[in-house]
UniProtKB/TrEMBL annotation:
Superkingdom of origin organism: Bacteria
GO biological process per UniProt: lipid catabolic process
Bilayer-crossing regions: 51-70, 77-99
Lineage: Bacteria, Bacillati, Chloroflexota, Chloroflexia, Herpetosiphonales
Protein name: Platelet-activating factor acetylhydrolase plasma/intracellular
Keyword Heme among UniProt keywords: no
Organism of origin: Herpetosiphon geysericola
């Protein structure tokens, strides 16, 4: 819970203790104790913003004040105290536990972090994408919001999950350890470059903790929303595109098959990633923020779920990719059969160990790799444990999995693997992690 939300809950305490005070004290303070929760709640709404999870608290504050204004009998006082106690408990449980406003893990690197959103247009395919660029910044400014379009994002997530959109209303209050549009730290470059894709109907913001961690250590990260396959893509001109596989030539009324994904979706995603690589070359040649700052001889591609599967495919057909990371992505396309030639880090969830086909394909991928290939399993985790989703509610995290620690663990392993291949850190730093027993090392 945020600071003023706690204060709004605590504002009910005087009403709880009032019945135990002497009669003259009760008479003198009765109106004030009833007024206090309403005033503090109003201040909280004005300064921090309301959210749906606190509606019971706001309603309770109004009810307590209304009861006091309408009657002031001892019986009414006891009723108010009882309501205050029950409401206080329920509000704290509901707001702080079930649907909190989460904070992402704090970056551990040396640099402040900047972020900027951009539209990139591939005129040859008549396709445009939204991307977020994360980079080491010259200084830290005001923390940026997780999204500029919380209502549209909530609608997209609601459409994807079937959960009412208002449940995601508190996404508007999540902030990043990054500042929008601040200058790049010139002494940090030239920067190794990373391109990220989320899972099918995922969002580019879903792995923000990983992006800001990597940027704080001197990487430039470009995260992609794959238009029409993201839960929602919002463009600055106001266009909103929800997930719609009809744009890929797939009947949305039918269940999507692996063959359809391989034929219609995967080629588009590969082309999206390669177009972003082309765009990075143009930015490095002539861009007010990025010109001359990118080391395009050291590029990695990574992704979660289908984004990780796409990264594997792109890195086999594009020589600009030097290293690939797949976060719990089942295999599609030719990766099911061919050997991986680029250094590969595969991190899977414990939940996915029950997927027979996926495990068979991963075993084949790792055992036939022609370069370093490491397979780790994140203990007690599920598919969404690699994203910030499980920070939104403890009901979403598997038993025994702590989301903040899990994200920080994945971020550190990803960074150290990249350091060994895109920088001169060597591989010892990463291989020594095996001694810490934080991950299940399935192959190394």
């Amino acid at each position: 819970m945020r600071f003023l939300e706690w204060i709004a809950c605590l504002a009910f305490l005087p009403a709880l203790f009032l019945p135990f005070m002497p009669q003259p004290t009760r008479a003198r303070w009765r109106l004030s104790t009833a007024l206090l929760p309403a005033v503090v709640s109003l201040i909280q709404i004005l300064l921090e913003g309301w959210r749906i999870q606190l509606l019971p608290l706001y309603g309770l504050a109004s009810l307590v004040l209304l009861n006091q204004l309408l009657a002031s009998s001892e019986r009414r006082l006891r009723i108010i105290s009882g309501i205050s106690f029950v409401g206080l408990v329920l509000s704290i449980i509901g707001a702080s536990w079930l649907l909190p406003v989460p904070s992402l893990p704090t970056p551990t690197g040396l640099y402040a972090v900047g972020i900027v959103d951009r539209v990139v247009v591939d005129s040859s395919r008549q396709r445009r994408l939204m991307v977020s660029v994360w980079y080491p910044a010259a200084y830290a400014g005001e923390p940026a919001s997780l999204t500029k379009y919380p209502d549209q994002i909530a609608a997209g997530l609601g459409d994807m999950t079937g959960i009412p959109a208002f449940v995601f209303q508190h996404l508007r209050y999540i902030t990043l350890a990054a500042s929008e549009g601040v200058p790049m730290l010139s002494t940090a470059g030239p920067l190794p470059v990373l391109v990220f894709s989320p899972g099918m109907v995922g969002l580019r913001a879903q792995n923000s903790s990983t992006f800001q961690e990597l940027a704080s250590w001197g990487y430039l990260v470009v995260a992609i929303d794959h238009t029409d396959a993201a839960a929602v893509t919002v463009f600055p001109d106001g266009e909103v595109r929800f997930s719609n596989f009809a744009h890929f030539g797939i009947d949305p009324a039918q269940e999507v098959t692996t063959e359809q994904i391989n034929q219609h979706v995967l080629p588009v995603w590969i082309a999206d990633q390669r177009f972003v690589l082309d765009t990075l070359e143009r930015w490095n040649a002539n861009d007010s923020l990025l010109a001359g700052q990118l080391d395009l001889s050291h590029i990695g591609i990574f992704g979660h779920s289908f984004g990780g599967a796409t990264a594997l495919e792109t890195c086999e057909v594009d020589a600009r990719c030097k290293v690939v990371i797949n976060l719990d992505g089942g295999l599609y396309g030719k990766s099911v059969e061919r050997a991986a030639t680029k250094p590969l880090l595969l991190i899977t969830s414990q939940e996915s160990s029950n997927l027979v086909t996926a495990v068979t394909n991963w075993n084949h991928l790792i055992s036939n790799a022609q370069n370093q290939a490491v397979w780790l399993e994140l203990p007690n985790s599920s598919h969404l444990s690699f994203t910030f989703a499980q920070l939104l509610s403890p009901l979403l995290a598997p038993d025994g999995f702590e989301p903040r620690q899990g994200l920080a663990l994945v971020d550190s392993y990803v960074r150290m693997f990249l350091d060994g291949h895109l920088r001169s850190a060597g591989h010892e730093q990463f291989t020594n992690l095996a001694q810490r027993n934080e991950m299940h090392w399935l192959a190394k």
